[in-house]
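It would be a great kindness if you could assist me with a short task in structural biology. A protein sequence and the structure tokens that stand for its backbone fold form the material at issue. I should value your view on which stretches of the chain appear to form regular backbone elements. The record follows directly beneath this note.
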Amino acid sequence: MSEKTRYYVLKQKAVPEVLLKVVEAKRLLESGKIVSVQDATEAVGISRSSFYKYKDDIFPFHDNAKGRTITMVIQLDDEPGLLSLVLKIVAEYQANILTIHQSIPVNGIASLTLSVEVLAETGDMQQMVDAIEHQQGIHYLKILARE
């Protein structure tokens, strides 16, 4: 990966209003109160294009990270030992693996969905994600959800 993903923690007053509305729209959808993106974006007063542009890039911060689940998708080369290396990194950071799903490789690249639980003893999750992302053979890593 050539570009390193960086994360920031901001006070709410420093976050642009459109991003706060994206978070609210996602909350409405996740709660089941609203079932379509169109209705959620209308309810909070943003365009659907703004929602789709930022929906994967902003999440509410939870102080109590313990017991939280992080789900990520990783595209990796179909090479012996690469999945084992990813799992070893997760183990080194003492996160608990909840689910692993690897697709059948297509053109030598597999898609891996990994859900991990953040425990009290878990190390810095950003460092763990960076360590995975910068391994030889990893093409893409994206955090899908934090619960």
About this structure: The chain has a mean pLDDT of 87.
